[in-house]
Amino acid sequence: MTMDEKSKKIKIIPLQKEVESNSRVVSYVYETLDYSLFTTFKENREPDHVGRIANNMIEYGAIQKPIVVTKHEGYPDKLVIVDGNNSFNARMQLNLPIPYIILEGATPKEMTALNLVSKNWTHSDYIDFYAKLGYPDYIIFQNLLKEYEFTCRSMEYILRLSTTNDGSEAHGSTHHSIARGLFKCKNPLKSREIIDFLLKVKEIEGGRSYIYKADKFVAAVVRLFNLKEFDPERALRKFKAYPGLIVKQPDAPSYINVIEKIYNRHTAKKDLVSFMCIKFRS
Q1: pLDDT band, residue 166 (cuts 50/70/90)
Q2: Which residues contact 38 (CB under 8 A, 6 or more apart)?
Q3: What distance in Å separates the CA atoms of residue 250 and residue 276, rounded to the nearest whole number?
Q4: Other beta carbons within 10 Å of 107
Q5: Three-state DSSP state, 89
Q6: Which of 164, 229, 157, 142 is nearest to 195 (CA)?
Q7: Cα dist. 260→209, 221, 233, 239, 275 in Å?
Q8: What is the model's pLDDT at position 167?
Q9: What does the alpha-carbon distance between residue 10 and residue 61 come to, in Å, rounded to a whole number?
Q10: Which of 32, 147, 166, 230 has its CA at a distance of 20 to 30 angstroms from the CA of residue 141?
Q11: Mean of the pLDDT values across residues 39-59?
């Protein structure tokens, strides 16, 4: 069956046209088959699950849920999609009409606010978005993610030099601070030192495992780098001497405990260090 044949069989689930009591009409929903009317902000992420949405429409029907568009001086004669880009592309793929509502004066920044509420965007989406807008800390974040194999979460720990909320949100997670464009790299040079340390751990592991880039191991290392009592070179010497002792752990404190044992192995009593007894500054 061709896509045209499939699209003709799709059930359209309409919107109610009557106005409910105690309610008023505040906007209009438009509909068109002219796909050329629409564009996206250049900062917008690429559509990532169009096929899944299209298949869902074929199987269950297409709800006339409107996409959200706006008029913007940077895109004359176009309606800029603020929310619903995946739905737009799925409908276009199926030759279905596009229902839409017009939001007055929306900006790329306001587009992220919509996606923050809908929770559709990931850390990577926000990092790419703000990097395209020219935010220097996000450009650093984006470039390091491309250069190394660490997850967004691990790289966030490394760049903030912390595994806790950075304080830019009074009542929220670090995801929200990243989403709102508030992320800051605390000390890029020290972050590079941590990355170099982790890459040396990778060499010591020798392909036996990938503990060096595990989020919980990275979190443990970031915490240790915030301690003046921690000597990275001593830790690497001990890791080289006892590579088999670097084993997977369930959480960051357990990794710190293992690192401490390796760090103190065959060490004079006066040089023993108990990291778990030190108040972490991260």
Answers
A1: very low
A2: 69, 78, 79, 80, 81, 88, 98, 100
A3: 16
A4: 15
A5: helix
A6: 157
A7: 20, 11, 14, 11, 6
A8: 41
A9: 5
A10: 230
A11: 77
**Strand (E) or helix (H) holding 171:** none
Q: How many CB atoms lie within 10 A of CB 191?
A: 21
Q: Supply the pLDDT for residue 34.
A: 95
Residues 182-207 have a mean pLDDT of: 94
Pairing of strands 12-13, 30-32: unpaired
What pLDDT, on a 0 to 100 scale, did the predictor assign at position 48?
A: 65
Please say if the pLDDT value at position 117 is more than 90: no
pTM for the model = 0.65
Start-to-end Cα distance in the chain: 59
| Measured distance CA(229)–CA(117) in Å, rounded | 42
Closest CA to 160 of 195, 185, 190, 126: 185
